[in-house]
Automatic annotation (TrEMBL):
The keyword Transferase applies. Substrate binds at K163, S192, R249. It is found in: Cytoplasm. One of its GO terms (molecular function) is homoserine O-succinyltransferase activity. This is Homoserine O-succinyltransferase. Transfers a succinyl group from succinyl-CoA to L-homoserine, forming succinyl-L-homoserine. Keywords: Acyltransferase, Amino-acid biosynthesis, Cytoplasm, Methionine biosynthesis, Transferase. Its main location: cytoplasm.
């Protein structure tokens, strides 16, 4: 089934060119089903690129998904046209009176910034607190995972000495967990972060189910027992060239970055990268939409209640 997004959104033509079913609002309204209402809080500077990446993963489901885009920072940006933001993005004040089936909070280029120094930290706190009573399941990606752990468990910011960048292999720890259904015992996933998520630290300081880890990258996937909060420390949404673009950007800024590991053919940046994580990324989002959102959410969102959720699978 399709995702429902505005016809004028740049992602629409891109996804249709990839043979992804994108439905117009008029056609969606004629179907006698209730689409899942998913809110995407986009914290990345290149919003068009990021929204397209997440919409691609949300499309791989038999469910109809109605996606709304949310922004948090009203300052002008050099990476996204103001017209695009004004046309397609909502402010939190416009949606906070409503309930949603799902919320995705993207990463942000804030790996070396302390939480209290983030310009919109109070707004992040307000939205994540609001989600407890208005969203069935929230997925936190990369920096957002660190922010979510801070707000839910008061965990301090833990920063690596060197940036983690590349494609890493991960082990599945609970193959029967709904989020991992269909996963191989090991799988590849991209990382691009300074944050440190060690299994030992999260096991000691949280009650999360730790679902997938890497010897090099630490925890990749974890969730609360009621599946209402899912933490993804990497970037399953990344395109094949996203890490390459980040690497070239850092080179251009004189940062002397290390070559992303397990990424380029023969570890040579002059050769094209190999995308080895697409199947896992699509499966993760399909599982989240089905088992954490669709199977848990009320049919009538106006009757949303935290009391409906249990810790049972």
């Amino acid at each position: 089934m399709p995702i429902k997004i505005p016809d004028q959104l740049p992602a629409t033509d891109i996804l249709r060119s990839e043979n992804i079913f994108v439905m117009s609002a008029k056609r969606a309204a004629s179907q006698e089903i209730r689409p899942l209402k998913v809110l995407l809080l986009n914290l990345m500077p290149k919003k068009i690129e990021t929204e397209t990446q997440f919409l691609r993963l949300l499309s791989n489901s038999p469910l109809q998904v109605d996606v709304e885009l949310l922004r948090i920072d009203n300052r002008p940006t050099k990476n996204t046209p103001t017209e695009h933001l004004d046309t397609f993005y909502r402010q939190f004040e416009m949606v906070k009176h409503r309930n949603f089936d799902g919320l995705i909070v993207t990463g942000a280029p804030l790996g070396l910034v302390q939480f209290e120094d983030v310009l919109y930290w109070e707004e992040i706190q307000a939205i994540l607190t609001w989600a407890k009573g208005h969203v069935t399941s929230t997925m936190y990606v990369c920096w957002a995972a660190q922010a979510g752990l801070k707000l839910m468990y008061d965990l301090p910011k833990r920063t690596r000495k060197e940036k983690l960048s590349g494609i890493y292999t991960h082990r599945v720890h609970n193959p029967h967990h709904p989020l991992l259904r269909g996963f191989d015992d090991t799988f590849w996933a991209p990382h691009s972060r300074y944050a440190d998520f060690s299994p030992e630290f999260l096991s000691e300081h949280t009650d999360l189910d730790i679902l997938a880890t890497s010897d090099q990258a630490g925890v990749y996937l974890a969730a609360t027992k009621d599946k209402r909060n899912v933490f993804v420390t990497g970037h399953p949404e990344y395109d094949a060239h996203t890490l390459h673009n980040e690497y070239m950007r850092d080179l251009g800024e004189g940062m002397e970055p290390k070559i992303p590991v397990n990424y380029y053919q023969d570890n040579d940046p002059d050769k094209p990268p190999v995308a080895s994580w697409r199947s896992h990324g699509h499966l993760l989002f399909a599982n989240w939409l089905n088992y954490c959102v669709y199977q848990q959410t009320p049919y009538d969102l106006d009757h949303f209640s935290e009391d409906q959720f249990t810790k049972d699978d």
